[in-house]
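Dear colleague,

Following up on Tuesday's group meeting, I ran the structure prediction for the three-component complex that the binding team flagged. I've pasted the input sequences exactly as they went in, so you can double-check that nothing got truncated or mislabelled along the way. The structure tokens for the whole assembly follow below. Feel free to forward this to whoever is handling the docking comparison.

Inputs:
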Amino acid sequence: MAEEKKKKSNIDIPPKSPWRRIMPMVIVFALVAVVLPEWVSHYWVNSISSVVCLTMTAATVALLYGQLGMVSLAQFALAGVGGWVCLRFLHGFDIPFEIGVLLGGLIAGVFGLLLGLPALRMRGLYLALLTLLVAAAFQVIVNVISFPDGGPGFTGKVETGARVLIGRPWLAQSDAAYFRYLMVWLILVMGFLEWQRASKSGRAWALIRKSEAAATAAGVSVVGYKARAFFMGGVAAGLAGGLLAGLNGQLEYSGFHVSQSILLFALVVVGGAYNWLGAVAAGLLIRALPALLNGHGVDGNLANVFFGFATLVSLIQGRKGIVGQLADFFKFVRMSRIVEGTIIWFAIAGLFGLVYMYLDKTSFGGAFFTALVALLFRVAIPGVAWLLLGFFGKPIQDRAEDVEAYLSLRLAQLMAKIGLIPDHRLIKRGLNWWFNGFFIAWVVWGVFEVEFAYGLALVWGAMSLKIISEKLLYPAVLPLRNAIDKKFPKPLAAYR
Amino acid sequence: MMENILPFLIVGISVGAVYALSGVGLVILHRASGVVNFAYGALGGLSAMLCWQIIDLDYPDWLGWITGIAAATLLSWGYGRFIAPTLSHQDRIVRAMATLGFALMIMGLGQWYWGDAPRRLVLPTDADGIDYNGQRLLSYTRLLALTIAAVATGFMLWLLAKTSLGLKFRALQSNRNLSAILGVRIKRIDSYAWLISGVFAGITGLFLGNIVRLNPTVLTFMVIPALAAALVGRLTSLMWTVLGGITIGVIESLANLTPAARFGSATAFVVAIMALIWQQRKGITLSRDNSHLE
Amino acid sequence: MIEIKNITVQFGGVKPLDNLTVTLDQPIVGLIGPNGAGKTTLLNVFSGFVTPTSGEVAINGKSITQRERRFDLNLTPMTQFRASLFTRMKPHKRVSLGLRRTFQTDQIADDLTLLENVQAVADHGFAKKSPAMQEDVKRAIDYVGLTRRLHRKGSDLSTEERHLAEIAKALIGKPSLVMLDEPGAGMSEAESEHLAQVIRGIPDYCGAQVFLIDHDVDLIVACCSQTMVLDFGKLLAVGPTRKVLELPEVRKAYLGDFGELERAA
């Protein structure tokens, strides 16, 4: 009997097949591609299009860093190479857009391989320094020869007269269509990278990451697999460069400053290098945060301060990044709660979307999205705040908890004294509500142009509705919860 | 012919001296604490911007210099004392990347406060200099930079070779854990290294702000030529670092005479890339941390 | 069968292996010796991480350190070609010749599951993905007794399980020589017993010879019919395990307090 029980507690869930691991990403991207252009303003469609290209580049940084622990600060320069080649071919020859992009990717891949050659010998710090130097050298070169814009000769630079723009592909002329077109590329590229991670290459990389000697003894060609990662990284970055060129029909030198490469790496660290969402987070942050700050009349350069701080925190806290922390968190959440939470979240968000659309305060999507973010932050912010405290060291983290506990206790005692029901988590909750309300409302004010008061009402409304619905639904869904947990067991969640 | 080259050569040497000085600051820190400080340029930039700000507010010049250097030193020390220890158990690469975060923070603050407006940091030594054939060959600022670079390098060589602090630096360089067991107070010695490196960053920041351009972003990325110089010295040898810095400066300056003048600013990177590849020519097929093979 | 002829390895002034000559023909061979005796260096010579200064190692009659004579009419052209390349053959290619090893510190990747860890080895031991490969992986895991941990992440395995997983990794494909470098480190007595059982079964499981390095003399006694003792790079003794362990010079060099241990037991 005891043996039986022991075995049951050790139930292991077989890992999903590579295809099933990619599916969530594909579904999310497809949904975003279909829905997003309908919701946001014209300015944001173009911004988010460039976010897509950045995400693709960030994915290559994440591939090298997450899979092999190699820091490449030159991925953005490789995107520049891809963009340059793509522009040159499209100006020089009458070829379809896709061929140009592919050629750019291929040549950037070769450059990536060249960059990776020394990497087969050097590791860690020296590789990072080498790639930084390459990125800096690329910046100088591209500054001098500039990106092609329809002129003659090898550089294809117009000396005098108007710059020529390259055309977009015929089926993606409008901004929204081009965004969707980019999403298709993104799905293909990131799907391929994810598939590599989940199959033979991924396993070989994991062995190399653990120890090159052990990988060798297991028959893995260390050199071959490192080169493969660099080539794939180069191709994907090059494709991103070409696609970025297609977005505006040209490329600017200033976009390929070495600082961009550094920022990209820093944000991959912040977002998380082990998950596709990390690359998305990096792409979003690098473009959206400065734009958001500028939109509110705050200097976008302050974003750099935040990025730097976040990088420090991520590195001190371990190397999983925001997404990794979230994934760890979800390991401990039972399946039933995830299902139930998702349904309730979407119901509430849909409700608010309809109400706000009816009141004509914003689009359905705007309110829907805001409500979702509010609900997400309600769960995530306490954890993030705790992480940020950890930046100052464990003692400070502990001390802050002590202080909070002491104040909460006192407050609860006070409440009991004056005849209220004591609540020990009032301070934490209060801070959470206050921060979520004001922060999200402020952001939404900029993005969807919702008045601040309505934004606040939306956030707090969604949060309170979630709590109320949970209380009301609890007895009804209890058997359902148990049934789901039985069907999808999560060994780690049982510890909670 | 010589007539033409000489001015460029002299200018090259003086700029190279500033690179060398930055490189020495980086090498000292790397030798003692094992950290490559990407925030070095940002600290220098902060020093230069603060100095300009104070002179612009009509305070005396010397106050500006001292404030600039002091700010860089204090920040560098603070990072080394409070933030670097939380990462001490991590790889070298992670410790280096963390300074990248620090650099972004300082740079972001600088960009936010001072922006991109064109400015000039004027030092009193700019006004006069050594003339040759009626042409200004070398301003006193550059001469001063050259002198300081020589003196500082000499001082650091002396410090490493003769003093007990230098001995501890060298002990940490060879084995940190062992040194700790033998009673070297790692955190304290590390913070001294950060302090010294911060002074170097502050001084070079002032010179670079004067010679190159007074802009927080530009100065932040001046860490790359400094790194290039340090890489010529394998991040450990002071003499090679100085040599590397001066070589870079001279080639950069002489490139102005060639048709490839516009590519001149890539010199530092090319020199360092070649140095890196040359140093790794023998290479190893396995990773360096093959302790599990022992 | 392992034939070692006059192997010397020299790093500067240090000689981890000094003119070592020995033939090991038993299915399970033990290697013991004090720290710094050159045990792991010998293993590294086998797996190609260390090139010997002089001498030759042959496994099952095939030299893995020296080129064979080119025009041996008994060999097929392909074998000749491979043999001629052997000295220059990269360590990772030796896997295809049946050499397997484990390391002192286990090399289980934390973020892969046990199955994936073993699979990673199989990826390179077979020509291409096949049902036989899947079968082989499952069989190896089952053999070391870890089937119930099949889908655990490497980070969630215990020390014992990680060591066993290492052994499973070494059993993939058609190994001819399995070298185990201190598989019993950090194991309790009960765990050691299971380990000994696993090691004893390896020759029957896949027909490979086992070369076992360990400090745990009990494990050596339990598994090995033949044992060699190294001391400062030199061969101190070789022969049936029991006899070797009783030699006075072995006790003196390595098992100074073995008598005490025995009395305690």
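Chain C touches chain A at residues 47, 49, 90-93, 95-96, 100-101, 103, 107-113, 115-117, 119-121, 123-125, 129, 148-152, 169 (CB under 8 Å).

Cheers,
M.
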